[in-house]
Amino acid sequence: MEPQSLLLFLLIGLAAGWLAGRIMKGGGFGLIGNMVVGVIGAVLGGWLFGLFGIALGGLFGSLVTAVVGAVVLLYLIKLIKRA
To answer: Helix, strand or coil for residue 53?
Structure first.
């Protein structure tokens, strides 16, 4: 992976983690935590969208995919914390 692509992936992950934290109301974990949630959420979102045959292209599509995955991940984390 080129350094520019890696940087863009991390920036999308950071934005997705932050947005997911706002959507889930208090589900954020700080700058580094949000980046981790966003990056893992991007992978999870890509897998989920692929599972359902949904393909979004471009920067905006990548952000939407990452945010959806991060929201799902935060929801799962909250479920596990409750148990």
So the answer is: coil
**Which residues fall within 8 angstroms of residue 46, CB to CB, at 6 or more apart?**
65, 69
Indicate the SS3 state at residue 70: helix
Position 27 confidence tier, pLDDT thresholds 50, 70, 90: low
Structure tokens at 79: 């479920």
> Based on the number of CB atoms within 10 Å of its own CB, is 56 exposed (0-12), middle (13-18) or buried (19 or more)?
middle
Of the pLDDT bands very low, low, confident and very high (cuts 50, 70, 90), residue 49 is very high
The whole-angstrom separation of Cα 46 and Cα 56 is 9
Q: How far apart are CA 41 and CA 13, in angstroms?
A: 8
How many residues belong to the chain?
83
% of the chain beyond a pLDDT of 90: 40
Q: Global pTM? A: 0.87
